[in-house]
Structures are given as structure tokens and as C-alpha cells.
């Protein structure tokens, strides 16, 4: 796969791993220094954001917040990727449970040892 396809596959695999509650698969996708940010539906106001920094915090979020909601599907349609050398970013929509929001997710990536890894995910960017 070319880089753009690989990144789209990575985003789609994250959604699959959430549904399967496969924490080991999720860990393999993330850079250890990754960051997850909940933008709280106010993209322009960062003061109300909640962040999880590094894998152990991100792992806790998956296990304690995401998995208990037990989503039947977690999809990120309409992925648009921009690649700059060994880094990349993507904007995507969110479809999880009853949520279906445009331009809700921003992902960043870094190529580490030849493999793309997620370095950040910012979600709830769309006003609801």
C-alpha cells in the first residue's frame, strides 16, 4: 500500500480494534508518546479540552471510557490525508453508535522504524 492507503487503513483498524476491545492491537498503532484530546465540541477554545498524554493514559481511556460504551461500530468515513515526509495528518468524520459528525477527528502520524504510528487524535471538533 502507498502511504495514503496505509494511513487510511491505520485509522480504519483503530475503529475495528475499538469494537473488538483489542488493547494490544491498539497499542501497536500508537506512538508511545501519543496524545488524545477531547476538544469538547469547541474547536476554537482549548481551555475546556481534556487530554490523555502517553500510551498509559491513552490505554486507560480506551479501557475505562471507550470500551464500556461497547460500540457496535466505530468508523471514520471521509478520511483526507496530508503527508509531509515522515509525518502526516488526516481529518475524518466520526460514526460511532448514534454519533455521526463531519470533520470531527484530526489525526497526526509519524513514521517510526518504517511503520506509520498515530501520534495524536483530537476528537469532538464538530459542534453538535
Description:
- The chain is of the alpha+beta class and 128 residues long.
- The protein has one domain: Nuclear Transport Factor 2, Chain: A (Roll), CATH 3.10.450.50.
- Helices cover 29% and strands 41% of the residues.
- The chain has 3 helices and 7 strands.
- It has helices at residues 3-20, 23-29, 55-66, and strands at residues 30-38, 50-53, 74-75, 80-84, 87-96, 99-112, 115-123.
- Strands 1, 2, 3, 4, 5, 6 and 7 form a 7-stranded mixed sheet that branches.
- Strand 4 and strand 5 form a beta hairpin.
- Helix 1 (3-20) runs antiparallel to helix 2.
- The longest helix is centred in the first third of the chain and has 18 residues, at 3-20.
- The protein is globular.
- The N and C termini lie far apart (35 Å).
- The mean pLDDT is 89.
Amino acid at each position: 500500500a502507498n502511504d495514503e492507503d496505509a494511513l487510511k487503513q491505520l485509522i480504519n483498524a483503530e475503529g475495528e480494534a475499538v469494537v473488538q476491545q483489542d488493547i494490544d492491537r491498539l497499542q501497536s498503532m500508537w506512538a508511545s508518546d501519543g496524545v488524545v484530546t477531547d476538544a469538547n465540541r469547541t474547536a476554537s477554545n482549548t481551555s475546556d479540552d481534556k487530554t490523555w498524554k502517553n500510551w498509559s493514559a491513552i490505554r486507560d481511556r480506551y479501557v475505562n471510557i471507550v470500551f464500556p460504551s461497547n460500540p457496535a461500530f466505530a468508523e471514520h468515513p471521509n478520511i483526507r490525508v496530508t503527508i509531509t515526509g515522515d509525518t502526516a495528518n488526516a481529518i475524518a468524520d466520526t460514526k460511532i453508535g448514534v454519533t455521526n459528525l463531519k470533520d470531527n477527528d484530526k489525526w497526526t502520524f509519524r513514521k517510526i522504524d518504517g511503520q506509520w504510528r498515530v501520534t495524536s487524535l483530537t476528537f469532538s471538533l464538530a459542534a453538535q
